[in-house]
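2024-03-11 09:14:02 INFO worker-7 job=invfold-0412 stage=load source=structure_tokens
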């Protein structure tokens, strides 16, 4: 995708993190903005800032896990701007803990947002984009799905999150291949960031009441997972703005895989070698045995 001026970008999770930073870049390029977020106050703050750019903005509070809310967003976006050109299925939540300790509500919440939120974006906006491409040979479009390095690896004590992000990688790779079968005008990418300060470690603040565990307290493994995730995310040196620029560059270059920390691909290679050689999974803490020992001791004290 090379032309951005006057085109339309749909961005989920646009109130903060990667979504907000990409909205800033899209506004600077003169794109119409369709923004959604589940947190109304952060969405309002983002809109107030972006209005200064002078680009048309459509903003709506949306829980991406809800099919009817995503349908409403797609309908109003098409009515206002027509088919979008850039779709960034970015909204996501984090969760940690031993995989058998995730409750049914944990699974439903995380899979609903991280996987079905992306699925709704793909199934609703792709047909619009394909119709626009068929009608206009000059149309260009691109879809970017936010996964994670957790979609390439399987760190322990992050079960439901790993599952959701692996599924997003699989969906994105399939989307790329399927689009290539039917059009040359629409590209696809998957974003796999490592630890970047975005606020995802505070996801519980937006957990819907229907998925609340009531008075039930988090398990020790979940508390450990939250603490480790919080420390890793907040200590990340790469900014969300930098990652958003990587996304925009990938859209322009029609680049599929977007990695915020390319050096981490060495661990992905090790995992793939485990598969190819049919050997047991390599210890993820092989390079930091003291961290692995600490986590093992903490978790075994609770089981």
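2024-03-11 09:14:09 INFO worker-7 stage=emit residues=303
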């Amino acid at each position: 995708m090379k032309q951005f001026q006057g085109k339309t970008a749909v961005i989920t999770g646009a109130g903060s993190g990667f979504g907000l930073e990409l909205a800033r870049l899209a506004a600077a390029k003169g794109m119409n903005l369709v923004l959604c977020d589940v947190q109304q106050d952060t969405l309002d703050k983002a809109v107030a800032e972006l209005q200064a750019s002078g680009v048309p903005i459509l903003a709506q509070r949306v829980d991406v896990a809800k099919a009817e809310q995503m349908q409403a967003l797609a309908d109003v976006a098409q009515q206002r701007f027509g088919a979008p050109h850039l779709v960034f299925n970015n909204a996501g939540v984090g969760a940690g803990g031993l995989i058998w300790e995730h409750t049914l509500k944990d699974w439903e919440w995380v899979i609903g947002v991280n996987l079905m939120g992306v699925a709704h974006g793909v199934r609703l906006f792709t047909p619009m984009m394909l119709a626009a491409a068929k009608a206009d040979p000059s149309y260009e479009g691109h879809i970017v799905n936010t996964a994670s390095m957790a979609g390439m690896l399987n760190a322990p004590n992050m079960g439901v999150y790993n599952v959701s992000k692996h599924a997003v990688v699989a969906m994105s790779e399939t989307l790329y291949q399927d689009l290539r079968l039917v059009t040359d005008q629409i590209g696809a990418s998957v974003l796999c960031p490592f630890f970047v300060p975005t606020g995802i470690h505070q996801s519980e603040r937006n957990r819907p009441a229907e998925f609340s565990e009531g008075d039930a307290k988090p398990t020790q493994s979940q508390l450990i997972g939250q603490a480790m995730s919080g420390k890793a995310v907040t200590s990340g040196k790469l900014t969300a703005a930098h990652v958003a620029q990587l996304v925009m560059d990938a859209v322009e270059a029609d680049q599929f895989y977007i990695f915020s920390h390319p050096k981490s691909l060495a661990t992905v290679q090790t995992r793939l070698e485990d598969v190819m050689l049919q050997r047991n999974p390599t210890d993820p803490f092989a390079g930091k045995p003291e961290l692995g020992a600490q986590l093992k001791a903490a978790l075994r004290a609770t089981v």
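2024-03-11 09:14:09 INFO worker-7 stage=report msg="DSSP finds nine helices and seven strands in the chain."
2024-03-11 09:14:10 INFO worker-7 job finished
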